[in-house]
Amino acid sequence: MTHSSEDELLGYALEVIASDKERAGIAAHLAMCSECRARLENLQKDIDIIGGVRPRQRVLRMPNPRPGEATTYAILKSAALIILGIFVGLGASNWAHREPEFVSSAYITLSPLTDSLKAYTVSDATDVSVHSYEQVLEQRK
Amino acid sequence: MNSDWECFIRARRGDETAWRALVERHQARLLALALFITGSATAADDVVQETFVRALGANIKHSTGTVQGFLGTIAYRLALKEAKRVRRNAKLDGLDLPDHGQNALDGILNDERDRLVAKAIETLDAEHRDVLVLRFYGGHSYEEIASILQAPLGTVKSRIFYAVKSCRQILRQKGVLE
């Protein structure tokens, strides 16, 4: 079996082989030759090293956002927050425990006394005993 | 739209988390690209900062290609401009160009292997160096490189092949590669 040359493998690894036939030929050979696969793997590692220099980095200052982008973004963000706030408020009001509402006496309208009640005063209702009250009820019948 | 472009767009709106992610992903490669073209650590730092300023301020209508390729193109053009400016000033002043080589690399590359690789890349002529740098550090496809350099696709592929082959030979002699 004729092994692939180093140039062929390098061209294959770099994906610079223009001829489909040549590329297919190398691929077919690699499929059945573990030795050439290992050589290709080493070549790929070399390429990664050549393309993998990592210099020391300094902290970069963040550029100011684009004026148009920043304004639009701020408007959209504010609108979204307002809408969210409304929904959260509505939801909270539905689920919240409700205390009895205090209503000022100023707003309570008393209905006029009926004729039957006008005959009794407050003291009648509080001072009379249960027995005498029952008597009153019987008299009304 | 991929996550890299989403991150880019959030960063240009002023999102600091997106900005940090963008820098984390791309700064090192861009810095290496600028270092190889300018030969100066200080100039490389400035080029990278300016690259981000220009990229985030650019009026982009579409987001085809990759963010790395977009940033790489800006960094490459700024680095070329900076290298020309330094050469022109040196000529006007009647001075020899300062030998940035070893000093620049020592200052910015902590790893010995990285220093030797960088020196190997520096030995390439500009045509071969630029193709290698655009491919590996700019993140460009061969078609994009052909467009940037206004060169035929076959020429670009031929140059990357010989650039890598040459670097491998140097690095083998130095014992960096097996």
Write structural notes for this entry:
The complex is a heterodimer of chains A (141) and B (178). Chain A is an all-alpha fold. Helices cover 62% and strands 0% of the residues of chain A. In chain A, helix 1 (6-13) packs across helix 3 (34-50) and helix 2 (20-32) crosses helix 3 (34-50). Chain B is an all-alpha fold and 178 residues long. Chain B has one domain. Helix content of chain B is 76%, strand content 0%.
The number of domains of chain B = 1
How many DSSP H or I helices of chain A? 7
What structural class do the secondary elements of chain A suggest?
mainly alpha
> Oligomerization state of this entry?
heterodimer
What's the total helix number of chain B? Answer: 9
Essential attributes:
heterodimer, A: 141 residues, mainly alpha, 7 helices, rod-shaped, B: 178 residues, 9 helices
Short structural description:
The complex is a heterodimer of chains A (141) and B (178). Chain A has helices spanning 6-13, 20-32, 34-50, 67-95, 115-118, 122-127, 130-140.
Layout: helices, strands, pairs:
The complex is a heterodimer of chains A (141) and B (178).
Chain A: H1 6-13, H2 20-32, H3 34-50, H4 67-95, H5 115-118, H6 122-127, H7 130-140
Helix pairs in contact in A: 1-3, 2-3
Chain B: H1 3-12, H2 16-38, H3 41-57, H4 67-92, H5 101-108, H6 112-122, H7 126-136, H8 142-149, H9 153-173
